[in-house]
Amino acid sequence: MSGGETPRTESASDNKVVRLVPEKKPKLRVKRRSYDDCEHLPAELDPRLRTVRCLKCGLFLDPMQVLIELVNKHHPYWVNLQRAENEFKRLQKDLVEVRRELRNAKARLRRVQRKGGQTS
Ligand SMILES: [Zn+2]
């Protein structure tokens, strides 16, 4: 053999070969949605099966990963809540002190008014 291709001639059997590649694009195409596009919220928690499932894409999520993301997302709110509770406790103590001082001031005022009434 010389190694070169021999020119192909069309035979009668070539006309009977069915072409597998369609010439036109199909009109109906299925486009799969990428799971990466989904934020997986809202999610459904099933305590009985111990599963977390995205209600949008239906994917079962890793419960530990969901928990970590929730903690990271809500951590600033927890910090603010803790600060607000501490401030509330401090204001409650201040209110007790203010009420005590008001009671004492009223008592002093009544004593002064009684003494004033006695002298005039
Ligand atoms: Zn999802």
Any key phrases for this structure?
single chain, 120 residues, mainly alpha, three-stranded antiparallel sheet, 3 strands, rod-shaped, binds zinc ion
Number of helices: 1
| Strand portion | 5-15%
**Record field, number of beta strands:** 3
- Enumerate the strands of the largest sheet in spatial order, edge to edge or round the barrel: 1-2-3
* Secondary structure: helix percent: 40-55%
Task: Give the CA-based shape.
Answer: rod-shaped
* Uncertain parts: none
Tell me about the largest β-sheet. Answer: 3 strands, antiparallel
Distance between the termini: 144 Å
| Rg from Cα | 41 Å
What's the rounded overall pLDDT mean? 83
Structural class: mainly alpha
Bound molecules: zinc ion
SSE string, helices as H and strands as E:
EEEH
Describe the overall structure.
It is a single chain. With 120 residues, this protein is mainly alpha-helical. It has a domain at 37-119. 48% of the residues lie in helices and 8% in strands. The chain contains one helix and three strands. Strands 1-2-3 form a three-stranded antiparallel β-sheet. The longest helix has 57 residues, at 63-119. The termini are far apart. The site of zinc ion (ZN) has 6 residues, from loops.
